[in-house]
Amino acid sequence: MDRKQKEVRSLKFTHLDDKGKAQMVDISHKEQTDRIAKAYGRVKVSTDTYKSIKEGYGPKGDIFSVAKIAGIMAAKKTHELIPLCHPLSITHIDVDFRFNDEMCTVEITSTVKTTGQTGVEMEALVCATHVALTIYDMCKAIDKGIELGPFYLLEKEGGKSGRYERK
């Protein structure tokens, strides 16, 4: 065993077996609790594009309805996109948009809830990123310079680790 493998084993990563190989965590012993996660994402566009999309419509139609549905669909498929995520029974998904006129940005907040044995942080993050990607797709015909990000977890509740809130 080389030095790097020894270092990895000593860190006790939950998704590594005793040989340092990737594994899905066994959550069968974990208690079911109410869980919620909120994630943030941002889409920055040019001034002209911002004026156009703030109305909610672009070259492909209703930007924000399509983006919200895309985020919801993506969150439900997180386990298919992220290899070691568990399939979850999601009880609620929501997406909110906030416009920042000064920065010409659309700020995205996704909220995902479940009652289960593992959290929904990845589902919330997948939702926010896919909402942003869909906004890009809906507007790329008028602005190829759209910037996506940052994306990050805002807060989560439930489970053994309890509450987390980004400072």
Provide the low-confidence segments as ranges. Answer: none
> What would you report as the Rg, rounded to the nearest angstrom?
19 Å
How many helices? 5
Q: What is the typical, i.e. mean, pLDDT?
A: 90
CATH topology term of the largest domain: Alpha-Beta Plaits
Structural domain count: 2
How would a crystallographer describe the biggest sheet?
A: 5 strands, antiparallel
Shape: elongated
The SS-based structural class is alpha+beta
What would you give as the CATH superfamily of the largest domain?
Molybdopterin cofactor biosynthesis C (MoaC) domain
Beta-strand percentage range: 25-35%
Q: What is the helical fraction, as a range of percent?
A: 25-40%
Give, in spatial order, the strands making up the sheet with the most strands: 4-5-1-6-7
Number of β-strand runs: 7
Describe the structure.
This protein is of the alpha+beta class. It has two domains: 1-27, no CATH class; 31-165, 2-Layer Sandwich (Alpha-Beta Plaits). The chain is built from five helices and seven strands; from the N terminus they run αβαββααββαββ. The protein has a five-stranded antiparallel sheet, covered by helices on one side. Strands 2-3 form a two-stranded antiparallel ribbon. The chain is elongated.
